[in-house]
Amino acid sequence: MSEGPRIGVFICHCGSNIAGHVDVEAVEAYARTLPGVVFVQRNLYTCSDAGLSEIKRAIAEEGLERVVVAACTPRTHEPLFQEACREAGLNPYLFEFVNIRDQCSWVHMQEPEAATEKAKDLVRMGVVKARLLEPLEEQEVEVEPAALVVGGGMIGMTAALNLAERGFAVRLVERGPRLGGLLLRLDKLYPTHEDARALVAKRVAEVEAHDRIEVFTSSVVSEIKGFVGNYEVKITSNRQPATGNQHSLRVGAIIVATGARVFKPEGLYGYDGQRVITQFELEERFRTGGFDAERVVMIQCVGARIPERPYCSRICCTTAIKNALQIRERQPHAQVYILYRDTETQGTRYEAYYTRAREAGIQFIRYSLRHPPEVTDERVVVYDELLGARLGIPYDLVVLSTPLVACEDARELAQMLKVPVDEHGFFLEAHVKLRPLDFATDGIYVAGTARWPAHLEETITQAYGAAARAATILSKDRITSSGVVARVDEALCRGCSRCVEVCEFGAPSLIETAPGMKVARVNPVMCKGCGACAAACPTGAMTAMHFTDEQVTAMVRAALGH
Amino acid sequence: MGEVLVIGGGIAGIQAALDLADMGIQVHLVERLPSIGGRMAQLDKTFPTNDCSTCILSPKMNDCARHPNITLHTYAEVTGLEGEVGDFSATILKHPRYVDETKCTGCGECAQKCPARVPDTFDMGMRRRRAIYLYFSQAVPQVMTIDPDHCIYLRRSKCGACVLACQREAIDFEQKARTVCVNVGAVVVATGYDFFDPRGLAQFGYERCPNVITALEYERLVSASGPTEGHLLRISDGRPAKRIGFIQCVGSRDVRHQRFCSAVCCMHSSKQAVLAAEHDAGVESYVFYTDFRASGKGFREYVARAEREYGVHYVRSRVARITEDGNHNPSIHYEDAETSRPARMTVDLAVLATSLIPRPTTAALAQVLGIEMDPYGFVRTEPFSPVDTTRPGIFAAGCCRGPADIPESVMQASAAAARAARFVGRGNR
User: Fold this and answer.
1) Closest-CA residue of chain A to B53
2) Looking at B330, B355, B380, which one is the last position of a domain?
3) Chain A within 8 Å of B326 (Cβ-Cβ)?
4) Which residues in chain A are closer than 8 Å to B108, comparing Cβ atoms?
C-alpha cells in the first residue's frame, strides 16, 4: 500500500556520534518497510555538502514529495535541510526532522539495542507525520521605520536621540508639561556630583534640536493598535482645560520609559516634611538654599524591604551617601549618621563611593528590623547591631530614604500595550536573564526605572540598549512570518475569545464578520506557533499548523504501535 | 554599510553581535578560546530564575553561528588596530587548531583514539580531556581543536592516532597561524573577567585543603555535564557533601586585594545553596557574609525563598581562616557579627566566592586598542556614557568594564551595539 505522498528518509551516522551507539543499518532496513517510504539512504554526514546534494538529487530523480531526516537537532540544523528542500523545489514545510542523536545515541549510550529500537520508533512517527504534512506559506509585512518613545525623562530622551541619530523618525511623548522627568527635581548626581539639571538641559537641547524627533509634551498615549512593524498609536493632550487635541501615528516599534516615583513615607518615623523629610525633599532644600542643619540622621529602607514591599530599591544607599557628602561639603563640621541595614554599593564605582563617605567621616550604623530606629522629639534612638548597644543621637534633621515605586498609570499603559507588570507594578520583561529589555510581544521594549529601580548609569545603559533592540526591527524593510502559525476555521469558531486570553503575544483578535457575529483571526507575524490557543480552543476551530491534531494523533498512534 | 568588530564571545559579545547583525550590520566576532560561550557556559544554573545556564545560552550561540551577518573567528585574538572611528583596520590572529574547520563535524571519534590526557580547563581541571578536544559538548563551532602543548605528534612527530580515526580527513598538522585584516567602523570590547586566585589568601586553605573549592569549581560540580555528572560530591573522598559553607568576599572589599565589591557573589552563593538543597534536601548550607547585597530585580524575594523554603542559613560574619581535621573536613573560623565573638563551624565542603577581577589579557588588548583602564584594571568608562571607552568608536560591555551580572551584561551589550551602530549605521535615510 503506497497511497499518498512519496517519502524519502535520510539517516545520518554523524561520524560515530549516532552510528557508534545506534545500529543505523537496522534503522535503514526498518525505514524501508514503512508505508509511503520510497527511498532510504544512510549518510556519514547528512549535513555535509554531499549529504545535502543527495537530498536535492533524490527530490528531483526519485520524485520525493516529503523528506525525513533522522539526525541531530532541529535547533541547529532544521534551516539547513529546509533550505535544501526549497532549492530542489519542495515546500520547506514538507520536511520532517527526527532527532536520533540527542534522543537516542546520546541519552542511551550504554544501551545500544534499546537506542536502536527507539530510533526506529521515532523514524516511524516522523514518517506518519510526514505523510500528513501540508505546504505552508510565509507572509511578509512592511516595517514603518519610526519609533514611539513613551516618557520624556533622561532615559526616553537618550533612547530617542540614539534612534534619531541612526536615521529613524521618533515620536516622544511626555505626560508632563516639559521634558526632563525626575532628574529635574534632583540636585547633584552620584558618583560624579555633576549638576542634575545641567545634564538634563543638555539632553533636552539635543532632543529639541533634532529634526527627526517630534516631541509631544502634556500628552499621553490613549490607544495602541497593530503589531510589530505596524503599530497605530493615538496621542491625546492632557492639558487643562481639555483641548481634545489628538494625533494618530504609525510606528514600527515602541519603547516604554515612563520612570517611577518616590515613595512618600506618610505616618513613618514622624515624617512631617519639616524636621523629618525625605532625601528628595532634602535635595529640594539644597537647590533652593533652604538647607540648614548641623546634626543629620538618615534612615535607610523606609518603606522598603518590609513584608508589604519586600524589594530593595537599589539607589537609596548611594543617594544617602551623595547627600551626606553634600552636607559635609556645605558644613564641614556637620555630623551625619546613616542608619542602614545592608550597604548596597555593588561593583567598583559604588564601593569606592562608600569608602569615600566613610573616609569623609560619615557615620554608618547598622540596624535590623528586630530593633527599628525610633524618632523622638530630640533624638533618634537606634540599636547598633555591630556595637550591640542602644544609641540616642540628637538631631536637627532626620532624612528618610524611601524607595522608588511604580507610577500609578503604569498598569493602564501596560494594558494598552498588552504587556505585563510585576506584583509591584514594574514592567515585566520577556526573560529576566537574557531578554531584560524586551517584552514577549515583538516590537515593544522597556528601559529605566519603569522596569526596576536602577542607578542613572544603568538606566542610561538601558536606554541605549532598548534603542538597539528597537533598531533590530526598524532596520528591516519587512518582517517575514514563519509558516508554523495558528490558523482559524471560521466555520467552527464561535468567538468566545479564549484564544485571545491565552495568547502571550497578542496574535489572535476577534473581528466582527456580520452584525453580532465574531470570529478570531490570527496575525501570522505576531504568532509564534506555540499552540496555546489551539489547546485552549473549546470547538477545535484553532489549529497549530505543522502540529495539527491529525498529525500529532497519528504520531502518538504510531508510537503506541497502532 | 560598515562593519563592527566584537571582541569576546561570552554572553555580552554574543548579545552585541546578534543585535548588530539584526540591524543589518556585518559583525566579526573574535573569541580567544576554541568556542564562544564564555563564563556563562560554565555555570550550572542562573539566579533568580534557576534557569539552566547552557540551555538558555546555547540557542544564542547557535544563532551567532547561523547568522548570515556574523563571521565567527574563534581561537583567535585581535593584535592590531589602526585608523579611527568609522574607519578602523583591525588585525586578527587566528591560532592553528590543526583541524580543518570546514571538514570537522565535532563527532569526537579522534578524541576517543587520542592517547594524551590533559586537565580539562573548562571543568576547572577536575576532569581530564584528550589533546584533541571539543571545548565543551555544546561548543560553537562544533569543531575539534588540538592542544599543541600536549599533542604527542606536534611535540615528537609520533602518534597521529587522530589522523587515522578521522573519516573526514579533517586533521591538518601543517596548519599555521594566520592573520586576517578587517575594516570596521566601530569596536565592541567584551572580554569578560577572571577570578581572583585564592592561593593569594592562604588563610582560606585553598589547595592546602582538598575540600575547599572556588565558586566556579562548585558550578562545575553541580552541573550535570560536569566532572561528577551533577552529583554533589567531595573532591577528597567522593562522599556526598551534607554541610556546606559559602564564604563571601574572598579577595573582594579587601584593601590588600580588591577594594571593590564583585557585585554577583551574594546572589550566586544563594543560588548555589539553593541548588545544593535541590540536589539533596538534607544538605545544610551556611552563607558567611559581611553586607548582603541583593538589589536586582527579584533578588530579595529569591533570598527570602532560599531562607524560608530551602533552609539556607545566612551568617553575618567575617571569616578569619579555614583549617581542616583529619578527615579533610574544613573548619571555618569566623567572628559572628551578632555576638561579636569568635566561632567555628565544621563543614564537608567550603566554597569560596572569589572576586571577579580583570583579565590579564584585557590589559594587553587595551594597549593594542589604545583605550584606558580604570584604577582596578577594568576598561575605563564614565558613569553617564557608560559603554563608551576613552577612544571614540570603541565601546565596552560586560565584566571587562567591572563586575556585573548576566542581565546587566546583556543590557550593556545591547547598549554598546546601539552606540557602535551609530558609527556604521544607515545614517540619513
Assistant:
1) A433
2) B355
3) no
4) 15-17
Buried b vs exposed e over A248-283: b needs ≥16 C-beta within 10 Å?
ebebbbbbbbbbbebbbbeebbbbeeeebbbbbbbb
Q: Is residue B104 part of a domain?
A: no
The reply to whether B10 and B70 lie within a common domain is yes
**Can you list the domains of chain A with their CATH numbers?**
7-136 (3.40.50), 146-261+406-478 (3.50.50.60), 269-283+293-402 (3.50.50.60), 486-545 (3.30.70.3270)
The C-alpha cell at B305 is: 525563598
- A chain contacts of residue B59, beta-carbon cutoff 8 Å: 75
C-alpha B67/C-alpha B62 separation (Å) is 8
Contact check, Cβ <8 Å, B384/A460 = yes
Among A14, A312, A457, the residue with its CB nearest the CB of B105 is A14
B413 CB neighbours in chain A (<8 A) are 465
Structural domain includes residue B428? no
- Asked if B300's CB is within 8 angstroms of A15's CB, the reply is no
**Is B22's CB within 8 Å of A349's CB?**
no
Question: Of A45, A143, A165, A433, which to mutate for an interface test with B (greatest number of B Cβ within 10 Å)?
Answer: A433
ipTM score of the complex? Answer: 0.96
B334 belongs to a structural domain:
yes
- Pairing mode of beta strands A230-237, A188-189: unpaired
Q: Do B263 and B305 lie in a common domain?
A: yes
In a domain, B53, yes or no: yes
pLDDT (0 to 100) of residue B66: 87
pLDDT bin (cut points 50, 70, 90) of residue B1 is low
Q: Which chain B residue lies closest to A78 (C-alpha atoms)?
A: B66
Do residues B29 and B188 make contact, with C-beta atoms less than 8 angstroms apart? no
Which residues of chain A are within 8 Å of residue B299 when distances are taken between CB atoms? 312
User: For position A38, what pLDDT does the model report?
Assistant: 97
- How far from A97 is each of A11, A79, A110, A240, CA to CA, in Å? 11, 11, 24, 62
Q: Let me know whether B351 and B363 are in one domain.
A: no
Nearest CA in chain A to B65: A76
Residue B393 C-alpha, separation from nearest chain A C-alpha, in angstroms: 15
Q: Do A468 and B421 touch (CB under 8 A)?
A: yes
Instruction: Indicate yes or no: CB of B23 within 8 angstroms of CB of A468.
Output: yes
Q: How many domains does chain B have?
A: 3
CA nearest B235: which of B375, B330, B358, B158?
B330
* Same domain, residue pair B230 and B305: yes
pTM of the model: 0.93
Residue of B nearest to A427 (CA): B297
Residue of B nearest to A317 (CA): B295
Same-domain status, B321 and B366: no
Min Cα distance B219 → chain A (Å) is: 18
Q: Is B411 on the interface with A (CB under 8 A)?
A: yes
Strands B394-396 and A230-237: unpaired
Q: Based on the number of CB atoms within 10 Å of its own CB, is A44 exposed (0-12), middle (13-18) or buried (19 or more)?
A: middle
Give the CATH number, domain containing residue B364: 3.50.50.60
Give B266-302 pLDDT, tens digit per residue.
999 999 999 999 999 999 999 999 999 999 999 999 9
Cell numbers at residue A458, please?
544603568
Distance between CA atoms of residues B402 and A461, nearest Å: 14
A560/B11 Cα distance (integer angstroms): 42
Question: Same domain for B39 and B142?
Answer: no
User: Of A22, A49, A315, A346, which to mutate for an interface test with B (greatest number of B Cβ within 10 Å)?
Assistant: A346
* Structural domain boundaries enclosing B115: 109-165
Question: Are B334 and B214 in a shared domain?
Answer: yes
Residue B429: band (very low, low, confident or very high) from pLDDT cuts 50, 70, 90: very low
Q: Are B138 and B19 found together in one domain?
A: no
Who among A15, A48, A471 is closest to B418 (CB)?
Answer: A471
